[in-house]
Amino acid sequence: SNSEGGEAMDFTQSHLWQQRADAVILGGVNSPSRSFKSVGGGTPVVMARAQGSRFVDVDGNTYIDYLAAYGPLVLGHAHPRVMEALRAATYDGILYGTPTTWEVEFAETLRAAIPDLERVRFVNSGTEAVMTTIRVARGATGRNKILKFAGCYHGHSDAVLVAAGSGPSSIGVPDSAGVTRAIAGEVITVPYNDLEAYDEALAVHGEDLAAVLVEPIVGNFGIVPPERPDYLAEVIARAHRVGALVIFDEVITAFRFHYGTAAQLYGVHADLYALGKIIGGGLPIGAYGGRRDVMESVAPLGPVYQAGTMAGNPASMRTGLACLEVLRDPAVYRHMDRLGAALEQGILASAQRHGVAITINRVGGAFTVFFGSHRVRDYAGAQATDGRRFAALFHALLRRGVFIAPSKYEAWFVSAQHTDADIEETLAAVDASFAEMAA
Ligand code: PLP
Fold first, then answer.
1. Choosing a second label site near 140 at 20 to 30 A (CA), which of 10, 220, 240, 335?
2. Where in the chain is the domain with CATH 3.40.640.10?
C-alpha cells in the first residue's frame, strides 16, 4: 500500500470485471452495500485473494482490510486453523442431510460459551436467524406486534424492513417496496437509547407485543453502545412487564468483543438470540436459540415451523468450531482492543492536527469514525453526520491501500491478524487523507 498519495494505483481490471458484472448481476453486486452508491459512486473494487489482514484486488493492489466482510472475519483472512478445518471437511464429503457429530459439538460449544442458549438451531444466515426468532416469539406468545429500534438492521425479512412511523408510539411504514402495509403495521419503531420513547410505545402497544428486538450494541448505524449501563436491563425488564419476549440480535456482536455475547458484557439475559457472521468462521451460517420452554414451540416439538436443507452443513460447523477454538484465548481480544485503541487515538490526533471534526465510537476492535462533533447515541445522530466527508475519507483511504466499508453507517473491524505495522501504515494513510481533505 501507499500512504504518500496512491495516484499510481491502477483499477483497470476491476473496471473491466465490474462492466461484465453489470451486464449479468443485478446492479453489478450481490449485496447492495458492496456498491459505492453510499460514497458518491465509483467502481467497486473486485478482489482476487486474501491473507491475514490484507486482500489483493484483480489489478494486484493490496489493501489493509477493515471491512472484515462486514463482520465475520474476526480472525482475518485464511486463518490457518480455519483453513485446516475447511480442508478436513472436504475430505469427508460436504452435505448429508442427516444429523452429524459436528453440529452436536458446535451446539455444545456455543451453549458452553453462552449458557442462555438452552436450545439452538442452525440456519444459513443472520436474516434467517432473526426471521425465525420473530416467528417463534409470535408463536410462543400468541401476539403479533414486534418493537424494534430505528436504524438497527436485522437482515432482509419483511418484518424488519420497516421504518419508524411519525411518532414514538405510531406504527411503522414499509422501508422497501414489496413489504405490505399490513406487515409494517405490526412493527413499532422507537429510537435506541431512549427509554421514554420506549415506555410510550409499550404503553400503547404493550398488550399486543410478541417481542422487542434489539442489537444490544448497535453495529448498523455505526458502533453505538448503550449509553446507560442499565439500558439493556431496563429494555428487558419493561418488555417482560407487558408480557413481551426479548430477542437480542447478536449477529454482529456475538464473539466480536469477547468469547460470548454482548448480553454477557452487560450481565443481562434475553429470551431469544439470533447469531451469525463470526460463528461460521467465514462460511455461511446463522443460529437462533434461547430459553428451552420458548424454543420448544419449534417443530418437531411444537407448532412453529422452521427448516433448512443446508442447515448445520458440516463445512460451516467445522470452520465455526475452529474459529471459536481460536477465540477461546482472551489474548485474541486483548490484541484487537489494543490495536483498536491505537487506531482511535491516532485517528483522533490526526483529525485534530488537520482541523477535521470527528467523533469515534469504539468497542474493542470495532469502531466508527463519524464526521461531526456531536456524540452519536441514536440513528438520528448518525444520520446527522457528514456523509460527503465520509465519502472523501473512504476514497482517499482506498487510494492509499486501506479498505473500510463504503458507508458512513458501518464499522471498522480490526482482526486477530492485524499487526502494529498495519496500524502504523493505516494511521499514515489516515493522516495523508485528512491533510488532503483539509487542503
Ligand atoms: N442482524 C444484524 C445485526 C446484521 O448486522 C446483519 C447483517 O449485516 C443481519 C442480521 C443479517 O445477516 P445476513 O446478512 O447473514 O443475512
1. 220
2. 80-327
Respond yes or no on whether the N-terminal peptide bond of residue 303 is cis (omega within 30° of 0).
Answer: no
* CA gap 316, 312 in Å, rounded: 7
Residue 344 backbone phi and psi in degrees, to 5? -55, -50
ipTM above 0.95, yes or no: yes
Task: Please give the grid coordinates belonging to residue 256.
Answer: 466480536
68, 119, 205, 236, 311 from 139: Cα distances, Å: 35, 16, 18, 19, 21
If you count them, how many residues does the chain have?
A: 439
Chain segment 201-259, per-residue pLDDT in tens: 999 999 999 999 999 999 999 999 999 999 999 999 999 999 999 999 999 999 999 99
C-alpha grid cell, residue 4: 504518500
Tell me if the pTM is above 0.80: yes
- The ligand 1 atom at the shortest distance from the C-alpha of residue 130 is 10
CA of 153 to the centre of ligand 1 (A): 7
80-327, what's its fold? Aspartate Aminotransferase; domain 2 (3.40.640)
From the candidates 57, 158, 249, 271, which is the catalytic residue?
A: 249
Contacts of residues 299-306 at CB distance under 8 Å and 24 or more positions apart, as own/partner, are 302/139, 303/139, 304/135, 304/136, 304/139, 304/140, 305/135, 306/121, 306/123, 306/132, 306/135, 306/136
Q: Is the CB–ligand 1 distance for residue 154 below 6 Å? A: yes
Give the residue range(s) of CATH 3.90.1150.10 domains in the chain.
12-78+331-438
